[in-house]
Design goal:
Strand content of chain B: over 45%
Shape of chain A: globular
Radius of gyration of chain A: 13 Å
Distance between the termini of chain A: 36 Å
Shape of chain B: globular
Largest sheet of chain B: 7 strands, mixed
Strand content of chain A: over 45%
Helix content of chain A: under 10%
Number of helices of chain B: 0
Oligomer: heterodimer
Largest interface: A-B, 24 and 24 residues
Largest sheet of chain A: 7 strands, mixed
Chain lengths: 113, 117
């Protein structure tokens, strides 16, 4: 199984500041035939289902603010929130869909400082 | 507007069975794979099962293989999770989600399953 490890487990950032969450996979999730990384990012707020933010490591979903961006390739990925807003307080998960079993990172709790 | 609505959750004794349903609307249901993902209280997300769009292929997490079955009825726009031999560790909120290349782009609100004597 591909193990997804996020860091840090929790993060406190001031309003307007940058937040960075890392995700590392135990093996590459880059499919070389199409040069796509099978990596997604989700946001989950308390009492709500997860919301897809980014697929293919860097493709933002329609309606997701452009302060959210994804980067990385192979085994190392990053979710960046360029200017934190109050509504961004949530738990963030990375997920690999390169192979089954599909696996998620343990989650990173983002709070306001 | 795409909507997924889970039902069938509840309290069940260890060793018993339970079936969850997920009714879809606002999408061409038979064109999409469907997932079940669960979240134990206070814990992270755990993928449970995946059904291909036509129901011919199913994939499972090791933790539920042999006990859970995912099935779908495309004429009813519904996907099911049939759970047997339930254990305390199966206690969770169960989400159904639309699959797009095996990531999940639309989620239901979830159904709570509690396994307890």
């Amino acid at each position: 199984d591909i193990v997804m490890t996020q860091s840090p487990d929790s993060l406190a950032v001031s309003l307007g500041e940058r937040a960075t969450i890392d995700c590392k996979s135990s093996q590459s999730v880059l499919y070389r035939s199409n040069n796509k990384n099978f990596l997604a990012w989700y946001q989950q707020k308390p009492g709500q289902p997860p919301k897809l933010l980014i697929s293919w490591a860097s493709t933002r979903e329609s309606g997701v603010p452009d302060r959210f961006s994804g980067s990385g390739s192979g085994t190392d990925f990053t979710l960046t929130i360029s200017s934190l807003q109050a509504e961004d307080v949530a738990v963030y998960y990375c997920q690999q869909y390169y192979t089954t079993p599909i696996t998620f990172g343990q989650g990173t709790r983002l709070e306001l400082k | 507007q795409v909507q997924l609505v889970e039902s069938g959750g509840g309290v069940v004794q260890p060793g018993r069975s339970l079936t969850l349903s997920c009714a879809a609307s606002g999408l061409a249901f038979s064109s999409y794979a469907m997932h079940w993902v669960r979240q134990a209280p206070g814990k992270g997300l755990e993928w449970v099962a995946l059904s291909s769009s036509d129901g011919s292929n199913q994939f499972y997490a090791d933790s539920v293989k042999g006990r859970f079955t995912i099935s779908r009825d495309n004429s009813k726009n519904t996907v099911y999770l049939i759970m047997h031999s339930l254990r305390a560790e199966d206690t969770a909120v169960y989400f159904c989600a639309r699959g797009k290349f095996s990531y999940m782009d639309v989620w239901g609100k979830g159904a709570t399953v509690t396994v307890s004597s």
